[in-house]
Amino acid sequence: MNELDAVIKRLRDLSKYKVADVLQEMPLTITEQGNSSQAIANQLRTLLSEGKMHQNSHWAAHMTAAVPTESIVGQLLSNHHNGNLLSPELYPTLNKIKQQTLDWLCQLFEQSHGHFTSGASYGNLEALWQAKQQYPRRDTVFAAETAHYSIDKACQILGLKLQTIATDDEDKIALEPLRKACEITVPLAIIATAGTSASGAFDPLDDCIQIAQEFDAWCHIDAAWGGYLKLLPERNAIFGQRLSQANSLCFDPHKAWAQPKPSSVLLYKQRAGPMMSLEADYLQHQPDSRLSGSQGGEAFLPLWLTLVSSGINSLRRDSQYALEQAQSFATDIVEQTNWRIYNSPSGIVCFETEKNLHTLIQQGVLSTAKRRNKPVYRAVFIGSHVKAKALIEKLQPYL
């Protein structure tokens, strides 16, 4: 990939501004005649500079990683190709690549069917949409208090009732309250989270799946963040023995695998059934009943090019490195402070301190979250860029 690296480096080197300058830069105005080439070039440099924040070794505020070269090229290729897989007969190569990538993901997550989406919010919505078709007389969804806000949003869109379940000291859904809730109201679905956005906690997946089966309910796994651990043999136990029995699962490669947006997948144990009568008089193959419509290679070509060029092990190594850095950061905090720390299995480290770290939040070093309704600072270790040493150096004045 040496030649491709050179192309991407030239794009990145166009930036000459510092981040502080970027944040004050106003976008170009939209006019009848357009702007000058010089003004456009300056704006492009500003955007490139803004994107450089993700390459900083102390960037741990959010689940937004620096995108690898192969993925950038894959995204450019997708834009150039611009195919629409609603007409797969016109794009046989793109369709085969899609299926190859999807088959690999199905095997990884022990599911049988699925498709790419624009994000886990879409995946969570569609999974509940499918559940509603299977259990049309039910309207209650159970999820932990720590479930992603998109679950609540999906329930509102679908006219469902979301009932949140208390969590234990590790931010996992509490099983006894969940079971009691099911005994009172048989749910449409139980949502289990594999890696919460706030603290990286994993719900007990096996137990959630088993309880759903006992009450003949749908079980959906929101693995948008923590799904990447499935690639690591040493972390497989956290997914339990029943993952293949979950009705659906969503995962976002654009998070822990550092792929460009949109890159997300929704997988099913059984092929999703038809949810409505659809017909398009301009298509050779009639559209299916999934939520998304027109789609090219934007959700999978970057990931596919990464896999075929650098190999699966490149993703595995980056993930292992991120977890090692998270553990190193947590250890340093424990050794150098009396701050209360919460270390998750998925590379998110939260901690409590009376120090005011607002400046570090503005710099993208840390973010804030709530854990059991208490405010905490949060560091997200993602990809191969974020380094524990760089974060500790940023924190040094406060230690």
The whole-number mean of residue pLDDT values reads 89
> What radius of gyration results from the CA coordinates?
22 Å
Structural class: alpha/beta
Question: Gap between N and C termini, in Å?
Answer: 42 Å
Strand segment tally: 11
Order the strands across the largest sheet as they lie in space: 1-7-6-5-4-2-3
Helical residue percent band? 25-40%
Note the overall shape. globular
H/E element sequence: HHHHHEHEHEHEHEEEHHEEHEEH
The total of helices stands at 13
Q: Could you give a short account of the major beta sheet?
A: 7 strands, mixed
Share of β-strand residues: 5-15%
Low-confidence stretches: 14-24
Description:
- This protein has 399 residues and is of the alpha/beta class.
- The chain contains 13 helices and eleven strands.
- It has helices spanning 2-13, 19-22, 37-51, 69-81, 92-108, 120-134, 149-158, 175-184, 205-214, 301-310, 312-336, 358-362, 388-395; strands at residues 113-117, 140-144, 161-165, 189-193, 218-222, 248-251, 264-268, 340-343, 348-352, 367-371, 374-380.
- The strands form two sheets. The protein has a seven-stranded mixed sheet with strand order 1-7-6-5-4-2-3, with helices on both faces. A four-stranded antiparallel sheet has the order 8-9-11-10, covered by helices on one side.
- Helix 6 (120-134) packs across helix 7 (149-158).
- The radius of gyration is 22 Å and the shape is globular.
- Mean pLDDT is 89; it is low at 14-24.
